[in-house]
């Protein structure tokens, strides 16, 4: 039973640099005792992520934690917005019912100065 080998970031970057300057992948793979497919994958990662390539699982976990935290915040804000929309809708419905029924206003500020003097 063989364990999967782990390579350092520096090792991977050095291998990718050697490929980029034109060293044949097959020869480099034999020399480094790495599967050629692995070298090609490292090249793709370097191309895709640039300086962020090969940061290790610790950085990925930190990013995943941050994404999860932001998603929780978004979910909480969606709930708050929905609650406030429903509350505003109820207030508007009550206001319209009072206006139709000709009922009393909800606050003294609703009454104009001239009307307040009459009361």
Q: Provide the CATH architecture of the largest domain.
A: Orthogonal Bundle
The CATH homologous superfamily of the largest domain is called Winged helix-like DNA-binding domain superfamily/Winged helix DNA-binding domain
Number of strands: 0
Secondary-structure element pattern, one letter each: HHHHH
Rounded mean pLDDT score? 84
By CATH, the topology of the largest domain is Arc Repressor Mutant, subunit A
Q: Number of helix segments? A: 5
How many domains, in number, for the residues? 2
Structural class by helix and strand composition: mainly alpha
Taking the alpha carbons of the first and last residues, their distance comes to 94 Å
Outline the low-pLDDT stretches: none
* Largest β sheet strand count, sense and barrel closure: none
Gyration radius (Cα, Å) is 33 Å
Please give the CATH class of the largest domain.
Answer: Mainly Alpha
Shape: rod-shaped
Q: How much strand? A: under 5%
Helix content: over 70%
